Amino acid sequence: MASSLTTLVSGSDISLTTREALSGIFGSISLACWIFLLVPQLIENYRNSSSEAISLAFIFVWFLGDICNLAGALWAGLVPVVTAIGVYFCIADGVLIAQCLYYGIVNKRREGRALLDGQASSSSGGAHHPGDDDHNDEEEPLLKRTRTNSITIPGSANTRRHSSHSVRRRRSSLAQTDQLAKILEESDESGTRLWFKNVMSVLAIVVVGAAGWALAYESGAWKPSPTSRDSNQEEIAPGAQILGYLSAVAYLGARIPQIVKNAREKSCEGLSLLFFVLSLMGNATYGAGILFHSTDRAYVQKNLPWLIGSLGTMAEDVMIFAQFHMYREREKSRSDEAVF
């Protein structure tokens, strides 16, 4: 994830061409995407007090890819900014993994305590009275949301009801219908706001990345790099190249557990859409930064592991976007059926 950033500290005096400028701009935007990448998912987990939607296999394999990437950068002797970004990736992954493990432990303990309390109350509750079920139904919330964001009506599995409560059931049904309609209206509104916030966040990151490149160029911290074979830098060590390919394999394989988890649960609830949008943007601009710099065969082969790791994962990100859309439409249709 780092080769296109080497020109940030280049000291060569080469005229700036349009292609080289675009390479620098795309590389800077990619850097901004990677810096802010995990923030939306960290916020989403904090807001939900849960990381259940994230596949731990996804994060762990991604973490292994970042470790290989950092090791390859150190082995190849790439510029300090590249190594610093690799270290940042590993730290950010560690924070997300720690958050996932924390919420997993806390929520498991909470469920265990709730189970014990329920067993204790049932054992000390004494004999069952006919009116107990009706009393519990009155105290139970009208709507409950499951992991897949589907709406279930409490007590729907219990078909035994006394005829004297038919009027109350009809009133409850009407109240539930009104509540369902209100929830659907709120979810549509929040969905619109969510897309607007995501678009504005992406535009802000693009502006920050482009402005960062302009400041680096004006200050002399960024200068165009040579592209001819004669002035080519020394070859990357074979071991560093192997680590680059390992990181590419890890990046390609990391999203598979998340895609499988989403398909199994028929839901993307709890995942941050902006997290995957920034991932797609970061990979696209990273690959563009490399290819705009040079399409020379030797240069492309030198950067092939990082190109595979970035451009290859874009197809998997598109699959996750399709899951977001498909499962959202399915949940909306189920909610509509529940209303009628």
Automatic annotation (TrEMBL):
Extent of Low complexity compositional bias: 118-127
Sequence intervals crossing the membrane: 21-43, 55-78, 84-105, 194-216, 236-253, 273-292, 304-324
Biased composition (Basic residues): 159-172
One Gene Ontology term, aspect cellular component: lytic vacuole membrane
Biased composition (Polar residues): 148-158
Molecular-function GO term, any one: basic amino acid transmembrane transporter activity
Biological process per Gene Ontology, one example term: vacuolar transmembrane transport
Record membrane topology: Multi-pass membrane protein
Pfam hit, one: PQ-loop
Keyword Transmembrane helix: yes
Subcellular location: Membrane
Annotated keywords: Membrane, Transmembrane, Transmembrane helix
Enzymatic reactions: L-histidine(out) + L-arginine(in) = L-histidine(in) + L-arginine(out)
Spans annotated as Disordered: 118-174
Family: Belongs to the laat-1 family.
Annotated protein name in UniProt: Vacuolar membrane PQ loop repeat protein
